[in-house]
Amino acid sequence: MMAAADRWGPFALGLDPAEQRARLRALRQTARLLIGPRGTDLCRLLAQAEADPAAIEPACRSLDALAATDRRQILASYAALARSAA
Questions:
Q1: pLDDT value of position 3
Q2: Residue 58: how many other CB atoms lie within 10 Å
Q3: Most buried of the four, 21, 32, 39, 57, by CB within 10 Å?
């Protein structure tokens, strides 16, 4: 079970499936561009989560397991994208 603090962006509850896929793709693109091969597992799980909801939680854990600087870069960039879209 995911912690409440992890329920943001593509991991939020109650999202329309199309919106969740869009958010997963945006997060995956952000990770790929910012950290490249260090984010391979995360990107694989995010892509898998687009079709398989069971991969959502492992994707979130993979993001949390990244080095602190990589994780901060991804979160800050994703947040900036989400803010500009709102």
A1: 72
A2: 17
A3: 39
